[in-house]
Amino acid sequence: MIVPSIDLQNGHAVQLVGGKEKKLDAGDPAPLARRFGAVGEIAVIDLDAAMGKGSNAATIEPLLRTTRCRVGGGIRDVDTALHWLDRGARQVILGTAARPEILRELPRERTCAALDAVHGDVVVEGWTKSTGTGVVERMEELRDHVGHFLVTFVEREGRMEGLDLDFARRLRDAAGDCHLTVAGGVARLDEIAELDALGIDVQIGMALYTGAIPLADGFLAPLLAKDPEGPWPTVVCDEDGVALGLVHSDLESVRHALDTLTGTYHSRRRGLWEKGKTSGNVQELLRIDLDCDRDALRFTVRQSGVGFCHRETRTCWGEDHGVPRLGRRLRARLENAPTGSYTRRLFDDPDLLAAKLEEEARELAEARDRDHVIAEAADLTYFTHVALARAGADHADVGRALDRREWAVKRRKGDAKPGAMDALRERRESDSTGE
Length: 435
What we know:
The protein is α/β, with parallel strands linked by helices. It contains 17 helices and 18 strands.
């Protein structure tokens, strides 16, 4: 797979040749991150921090809230690495700081050792000084301490002259059970496909920015190698992973989908088909995934309107159910709940809603048997979703917040607020005595 790269200088996305000459300035990285992030993780590299000339932290942090990012550049100690992990970075990329005494303080699966190599030898200090150590040897030394390697072929970086596939195979063997990403010089789709078959990802910058490799083509390279014509079966899912329908895609439709970030597919009858263009039931594209065999696609979308199906149901198998459906019903009622209805009262009276939230949370805390816990949890879920609807949010927003917290390394103790435990005991004693 490809890993699109965003290198940052002075808050701008740039591309350098040979690590020195600025070849391209793409401006604000946020739109790039949104588009690149639709095909997987992206690499965000703070060149200023790496060179000791400043920091792009204020630019990177908002990207972590919306995009799956690997963060590198200027990470030289444990505290800096933990800072980025706690803010949602999927990995931290360490260069010369990838040493056992630092790595042992970090979760192995979240660390990536970046090794810059010139003709097979590791170089440091801005690619100017050879260490005299071969990159294969260095990987063998570090592979028990990290979960990932990023090897950059410096002599090919930014030049799009192609990769040394034989050397990449040696690196794959040296990586052991670690994931491996290579960068520098990728120029052809067949290289991406061949590396993917070896279990190697390819980090791409210049080829994407210049259009030498369009984003869709690079992403689809492993699939195109097997079936260059298509169309390919495509499962369309919502943010909860619920399948909305089965459609087909081809290269033209995936290109359009990534260019416009819409749910766009291939129809045998209509050709290029942008969902909702006539019905209004549009889809915002969130991400595309290849399946494990590289012969089918999954589109994850944010579906608007009545749903995906032409029969005006949420899915092509009928309506969905459960918590997601509750949230949508409440958001719809926010606009048209009749005066006097309970839902309208809750929307219009924040004090009533607050009282019910406190009441239901307390009843859930006090429930003991399974059926009682389920019933009280259902009550609290209803009132929670009313509060979300009033705030213009939904359960998917909550899910994303929980996902971000999962990636944090440092954990809060989770103690109750001062006095809360005493108040709970007093209330239980009062209930037991009937006072």
